[in-house]
Amino acid sequence: MSATDFSTTSIFDSAILVLSDIHASTTDPTKSDAPSYVSSKPSAAFGGIDPFDNMVRTVRALGTRISCLICAGDLTNLGDPSGVAYVWNKLGEVASELDARLLVATPGNHDLDSRYLYTEYDARGQAMLLMPTLPVRSRATYLEFWAEHFAFVELADSRILLLNSSAYHGGGKNPEEERENGRVSAPTLRRIESELARLPIKPVNVLICHHHPDDPEEILENDRSVMEGGKKLLHLLNDSNVGPWLVIHGHKHRPRLFYSGGSGDTPLVLGSASFSAQINRDATNKCPNQFHIVEFNAQGATQIGVGLAGIIRSWNWTIGEGWNPAQGPYGLPHRSGFGFRGNIALVANRVRSLIPDGQFRRWCDLVNEIPELEFLLPKDYQKLRANFRTLGIELLEKEGVPAQVARK
Question: Which helix (H) or strand (E) holds 187?
Answer without folding.
Answer: helix 186-198
